[in-house]
Amino acid sequence: MIALEIVAGLVLGYVVGSCIESALHEYVPDAGPRLLAVWRRHPRLCRRLLEAHFSHHVIHHQTFRDHVTQFASPQHRARLEALLRQRGRHGRTILRNRFSDRLHDESVPAFCLPWVVAGLAIALLAPTAMALAATVTLTLPGLFSHYIHPYMHRPFADGQREAPRWLAAFLRSRYMRMAYRNHFLHHRFGGTGNFNLVLGGDWLRGRLRRAGDDDRRAMHAAGLPVD
Ligand SMILES: [Zn+2]
Ligand SMILES: [Zn+2]
Fold first, then answer.
1. I want to staple 60 with a disulfide (CB 3.0 to 4.6 A). Which of 100, 111, 136, 193 is the partner?
2. Angle at Cα 138 formed by Cα 135 and Cα 139, nearest 5°?
């Protein structure tokens, strides 16, 4: 019975966590113009939301040329570095986190809040073993954002060479090959779909777009796993 509760908890935490990741990514870091207009009318109240959008949608999304090459030239990088230094605390945070290549250390408490709320709700409603197991899988989106996402912007072979052996084995699993493709398409479609690193939520939310022949060719050219 306990084993069943643990399995149910792991699945529940995974599904809820993946759906939160997909929705949050769509409506905060890749928020559309209408939401942005509302936030800009209340800049102090919405400062963290505006910062999340700037570091992700402007800096992270718009500095990649082909998903694995960032910046058009060393001069482009130097110009952006100078600009970010002038931007104060948030600019320095972006630089410290390699142009928002990973979840900012400083943003962990705010970023994790929705998953913590989900964990508390599960803890209130579910048996203890199930709730504890759900907590484990609810941490996946945060861990993937910080530790896995940087590899998704490297050619696959580089990640295989540079990651620790256990992580390299995970990166070449069927699941992670799908995650690589999903993230490539997320960038290719300008942050309008395929939001998950932890797969499943996009599919449940109807935000999954499939790769066409052109997308596959571009993926192959960038050194990413096509199949
Ligand atoms: Zn990315
Ligand atoms: Zn995005």
1. 100
2. 95
Q: Token pair for residue 115?
A: 């998953």
- Taking alpha carbons only, the member of 144, 54, 33 closest to residue 100 is 54
**116, part of any domain:** yes
Distance (Å, whole) CA 22 – CA 143: 15
- Indicate whether 226 belongs to any domain: no
C-alpha span between 63 and 212 (Å, rounded) = 23
Looking at the domain assignment, is residue 91 inside a domain?
yes
Ligand closest to CA 189: 2
pLDDT digits (tens, 9 = 90+) for 17-65: 999 999 999 999 999 999 999 999 999 999 999 999 999 999 999 999 8
The residues near 4 (Cβ < 8 Å, ≥ 6 apart) are none
User: For the purposes of burial, counting CB atoms within 10 Å of the CB of 214, is it exposed (0-12), middle (13-18) or buried (19 or more)?
Assistant: exposed
Given this model, what pLDDT does residue 31 score? 97
The crossing angle, in degrees rounded to 10, of helices 2-27 and 108-125 is 140
Number of domains in the chain: 1
Domain around 190: 2-221
Residue 157 lies inside a defined structural domain of this protein: yes
CA–centroid distance, 194 to ligand 2, in Å, is 9
